[in-house]
Amino acid sequence: MYDACVRVVWIACVVLAGAFVHTASADPRQDRARAEQICAAREPGCDWLATLSSLERATVVRALTARGYELEAQPWGKTIGHVRVYNEDVFAEGTALIKFFNKFHVTTKENAVRQEVVVSPGEVWDQLRIDETARRLRDPLWTTVIVVLPVKSAEPGKVDALVVTRDIWSLRLNTNYTYQLGTLTNLSITLSENNFLGQRNVVALGLNMDQGAIATGPLFINKNVFGQHYVLAARVDAIYTRRALFDERVLNREGSRSSVTLTKELWRLSEKWGGNLSFAHSNSIARTFNGLDLRQLRCPLDGSRCFNPRATDPPPPDDEPLLPRTFSLRNWSASVEATRRWGAQWKQQVSIGQTVSNRRSAPLASFPGDDVQRASFIRDVLPRSELISAPFVQYTVFTPRFRMLRNINTYDLAEDVRYGPVLDTSLSFGTRLLGGDRNFLTGVLNLSYTMPWCRDGFVRTGVGIGGRAQTSGFTDDDTDGLRFIDNTASATLRAVSPTYGWARVVAEASFSTRWNDTQNSFFTLGGADNGLRGFQINELFGARTGDRRMLAQVEVRTVPRPIWVLRAGAVAFYEVGSVADTLRDVRLHHDVGVGLRMLIPQTSRELFRFDLAVPLDSTGATQAGQLRFTAGFDSAF
């Protein structure tokens, strides 16, 4: 089956790549770009239909025909008379057999859409707020097409706003998976009604499987409680051991988890107040994998530090077995916060709140080592157990400048990119006065900037730093001085080129580091979901900790092409990365590959991803030139 999949994807990529090579002179995107410029300049020749993609245009034409509306070319300066809503069936094209399936979908009620609109009758047509309405409604759970256009009003001197939507199939078996190394490493299945009673509410039974466990239980989301833009989400899961279920065919329950949140959204840019209440708990087994197997640790019998052995390390003595990196992890958390937003050209918001959390980790009852190794395992592998009670304050500032683009994370569907700077910083004050185990100060600072690149590209750069300052709790007598622990820093650079003819280039480079870590964390690299698709899952790591991680990825992505109900395209990619304890230990690893991307817009905004990758160098687990096939959802980065 693996070889057959590889051959099918390889042939499909070659065929698609050939189909996409054509001259740019017949490119309809150039016509759309010119139409967008004319309408943005408010010129008399504005043609709103010409600014839309082929999928959007077809939906809008059917809406205008069904309702008898006529587009208004010059809405600026006119008062909005009415807000009109038109919801199209999921399957609006095709044969009678295909359209028959619309009977099993509840189309979103007009009142549910109208509650999300940020303009009202009596206001002057403001294109920025019209665009904000489209962004608000463009939700991947419910909508595949959303267009807001001006139409002629029956009242002289006024204009009506027409909101055209096309639902995603709601009664569905949602799936998301990652297939690599010849096995299904991750799987998410949700049997759901994503548009319960046509009010954009979700009632579902979900199953999430990773390499170690399977979690299953009910999920409920109310998008707009009492019509006041409160979002209520709740989920409860039972957790079962995956290997026992598949190998022994028995249900071995190992834990549970739950969460409930109530959020008062800042649902429009002019909204001033928001807030959040949340509670979550988890009782589970934490596992770390290397490839398809549990990562093995070496904890010497003399009590020295545990470490991740490499394939080139000498084998341990017979009386010193390797220990699987797995342990029991129990935690719960509760938080409350209130947010105040203000500003116009610069949006600023401050959140204050309180969080309480309790985490307890311990070796499993089946721990195979002796008492000395057990003590080393607790010291060198387990995250810190502690009760935290911490008030916090968070400040965010950004510029509300947005641009609608396509063919970045989805195919032929509108996506929103925010331009300009973003500053996000927070301080958390852990204190014993409110019941916590320790006094400490945690700070986080993130700064990013996104700038446009020609018509439909952008460049984004970002840096972040965080850490914790603590004066006690390191030794039993609590006499330690001030120390900075659990420090992290990162930097990213992402570039999305404009579309040139039949393709665009997307590139991303990132660097992450941590120091004075007391949580026993370490970086890994390798696999479809972690970068370097030509290597095994998490196979690259530091010999002791893995405190430096760097990764660069470049993809050439063709523009999407309609094939029946599909949108399809091809990619070619190159990746280079490394994980090491220090920069002196860095050894770069490389791979190249090709892939196929497909989207079915009637059923989901998530695209199918199929990749063939070839590593260009060898490791202990991977040979140069060894072909690897991976499959999953969404873009790789």
Note the topology.
Blueprint: H1 2-20, H2 28-40, H3 54-67, E1 79-88, H4 96-100, H5 110-114, H6 127-137, E2 143-152, E3 158-167, E4 171-180, E5 183-193, E6 202-209, E7 213-225, E8 230-241, H7 242-248, E9 253-264, E10 273-287, E11 289-290, E12 293-294, E13 296-297, E14 323-324, E15 326-342, E16 347-362, H8 371-380, E17 386-398, E18 401-405, E19 415-430, E20 440-453, E21 457-470, E22 483-496, E23 503-515, E24 524-525, E25 540-541, E26 548-558, E27 561-563, E28 566-580, E29 589-599, E30 608-615, E31 628-633
Structure notes:
- The radius of gyration is 27 Å and the shape is globular.
- The longest helix is centred in the N-terminal third of the chain and has 19 residues, at 2-20.
- With 637 residues, it is mostly beta strands.
- The protein has helices at residues 2-20, 28-40, 54-67, 96-100, 110-114, 127-137, 242-248, 371-380; strands spanning 79-88, 143-152, 158-167, 171-180, 183-193, 202-209, 213-225, 230-241, 253-264, 273-287, 289-290, 293-294, 296-297, 323-324, 326-342, 347-362, 386-398, 401-405, 415-430, 440-453, 457-470, 483-496, 503-515, 524-525, 540-541, 548-558, 561-563, 566-580, 589-599, 608-615, 628-633.
Query: What about the largest sheet?
Result: 22 strands, antiparallel
Total helical segments: 8
Shape: globular
* CATH architectural arrangement of the domain at 52-167: Roll
Low-confidence stretches: 1-26, 474-478
Q: How many DSSP-defined strands? A: 31
In which range does the helix fraction lie? Answer: 10-25%
CATH topology of the domain at 52-167: Ubiquitin-like (UB roll)
| CA-based gyration radius | 27 Å
User: For this structure, what is the CATH homologous superfamily of the domain at 52-167?
Assistant: membrane protein fhac
Structural class: mainly beta
Mean pLDDT: 86
Tell me the β content: over 45%
Our measurement of the CA-to-CA distance between the termini, rounded to an integer number of angstroms, reads 27 Å
CATH class division of the domain at 52-167: Alpha Beta
